[in-house]
C-alpha cells in the first residue's frame, strides 16, 4: 500500500486529488493539508511514502516543504515529493528539482497519469511532465551545476563503468525494471548502483541525477 499525503491550499483541488488517489486499491491517503506548514508537520509525524504538494501554498511553499523533507535534522530518510501545480513556468520546475523533488506534474494531466506518477515516485522513479521535460533539460544544460564537487570529468573518475552505464540509461527515461532487463541483472542490483551514484554526483534524487547527466553532457537532449 502506497501511503500518500496531499497538500494544496485550494479545497476543491485538494479534495479532488485525495479522492482520485483514494479510489486506487494500492493507495491510501493518510492525510490532507491546506498549507505548507501543516504539510510539513503531517509528513514528519506520519512518514508517508509520497507527499503530493502544490507549489504555491501559504505558510511554506511546496518548494520549501520539499527542501525540508530532504534535509531532515535527525538524519533519517527523505520523503519523496511529487509536485503538482497549475503552473508550468520553468523557474518553478528548476526550483523543485534543485530542492530534491522526485517528480513534477501539471494538475491538468490525465487522472491516470497522476496516479501513475504517484506510483513511479513511490517506486523510486522520477517523473517530469512531458510538456516541460525537453525544455527543462535543455535549460539545465546551460545552467550552473546542481552541486559544486563533481564536474563531468571528476565524476567520470568517481563512477564505475557500470554506474556510468546505469546513469546513461536513467537519463534515457528508463525505470529500474527497464534497466535491469537491458543489463540482464536483478532490479535490486540496479537500485544498489543508483544509491551509490547519487552521492558521487552530489545529488539527492534520481531525477536530479538525470538533470546532472544532461547538464554535464553525459547524454544530450534529443530534438
From TrEMBL:
This is DNA-binding response regulator. Pfam families: GerE, Response_reg. The lineage of its organism: Bacteria, Bacillati, Actinomycetota, Actinomycetes, Micrococcales. The modification 4-aspartylphosphate is found at residue 54. InterPro entries: CheY-like_superfamily, NreC/VraR/RcsB-like_REC, Sig_transdc_resp-reg_receiver, Tscrpt_reg_LuxR_C, WalR-like. Residues 152-217 form the HTH luxR-type domain. One of its GO terms (biological process) is regulation of DNA-templated transcription. Keywords: DNA-binding, Phosphoprotein, Transcription, Transcription regulation. GO terms for molecular function: DNA binding. The keyword Mitochondrion does not apply. Gene3D superfamilies: 3.40.50.2300. The keyword Transcription regulation applies. PANTHER family: TRANSCRIPTIONAL REGULATORY PROTEIN NARL-RELATED (PTHR43214:SF24), TWO-COMPONENT RESPONSE REGULATOR (PTHR43214). Residues 3-122 form the Response regulatory domain.
Amino acid at each position: 500500500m502506497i501511503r500518500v499525503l496531499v497538500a494544496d491550499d485550494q479545497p476543491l483541488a485538494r479534495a479532488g486529488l485525495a479522492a482520485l488517489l483514494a479510489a486506487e486499491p494500492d493507495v491510501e491517503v493518510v492525510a490532507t493539508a491546506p498549507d505548507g506548514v501543516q504539510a510539513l508537520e503531517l509528513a514528519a509525524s506520519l512518514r508517508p511514502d509520497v507527499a503530493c504538494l502544490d507549489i504555491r501554498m501559504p505558510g511554506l511553499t511546496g518548494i520549501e516543504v520539499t527542501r525540508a523533507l530532504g534535509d531532515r535534522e535527525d538524519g533519517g530518510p527523505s520523503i519523496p515529493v511529487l509536485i503538482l501545480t497549475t503552473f508550468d513556468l520553468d523557474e518553478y520546475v528548476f526550483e523543485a528539482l534543485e530542492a530534491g523533488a522526485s517528480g513534477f506534474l501539471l494538475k491538468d494531466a490525465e487522472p491516470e497519469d497522476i496516479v501513475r506518477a504517484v506510483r513511479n515516485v513511490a517506486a523510486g522513479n522520477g517523473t517530469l511532465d512531458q510538456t516541460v521535460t525537453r525544455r527543462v533539460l535543455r535549460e539545465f544544460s546551460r545552467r550552473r551545476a546542481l552541486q559544486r564537487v563533481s564536474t563531468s570529468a571528476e565524476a567520470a573518475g568517481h563512477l564505475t563503468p557500470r554506474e556510468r552505464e546505469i546513469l546513461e540509461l536513467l537519463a534515457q527515461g528508463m525505470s529500474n525494471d527497464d534497466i535491469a532487463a537491458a543489463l540482464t541483472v536483478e532490479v535490486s542490483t540496479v537500485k544498489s548502483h543508483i544509491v551509490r551514484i547519487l552521492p558521487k554526483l552530489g545529488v539527492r534524487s534520481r531525477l536530479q541525477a538525470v538533470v546532472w547527466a544532461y547538464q554535464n553532457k553525459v547524454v544530450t537532449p534529443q530534438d
